[in-house]
Predict the 3D structure of the following.
Amino acid sequence: MATQQRNNIEPQQRRQRDRRRTGSAIQKSKGPEAAPKRMRTKRRRRRNTGFLLRFLTMLAVVVAVTLGIVLFFRIHTIKVQGNSLYSEQEIIQAAGLTEGENLITIRKSSLAGKIIAALPYVEEVRIARVLPDTVVISVKESEVAFSIEDEAGQKWLMNSDGKVLEPANEEKAQSHPAILGVTAQSPAVGSQVKGEPADSLEIALRILEELEGTGILPQISSINVEKTFDLVLWYGDQYEIKLGSSEDLSYKITYLAAVLEQLDDYQTGTIDLTFDEKRVARFLPREIENS
């Protein structure tokens, strides 16, 4: 009986030993392959952890900067430069700026647009931030270049670009060159003038552009563009200036400046710049012209 039990146990023990050996052999065979996988897994975990830390650090920086912008950089001082027609307070009110607003978040283009829309004589606006608490508004104001009549006979003042600046009475309009031969169509302050005939208005604006910077414009009392082939300027009531057509306007105005330098103050008459083949200007004294 005891011998039979030993015989039954021994095969079982042998099978268990075989299974342990087989398992050990399998583990040994997996060892060289499993090691690199474990290393890769550890590296991946380290990379993920590093990325998360960097992300959290960047997030903290962004939050800190945002809080700094919100809590600090409040506007304390607003300066205005280049203004003469409008007061500093008028320009600040037109911009809609107030002390205590955030300096960093103001929209400069929007502020400039508000000023130009509200104040027609303002031609250009530049806005600068000066840390930590100052805004500087620099403006360039328009000058009146000419006057023009609308359909009802109302006079309007314009700048050299044709922007409507304001309505004017007869006395105020006479202080500036009058555009004759063009009627303003429903002018509105702050908008570009529309004239009829349109080509005549365009020629008048070209003449004004050529006259700017020559020193002649302040003396011009009228620009008659009723006939585009027979353009006429009046220099006060002293000289009638015949330009002929709108061709070679730049050359004609340059020539006009040279002619005026040669004339004496007491002389009066017609300066003819219509040019013949020789392209030579002529001066006709008034007494000869009327004889």
Q: What stands out?
A: The chain has a mean pLDDT of 84.
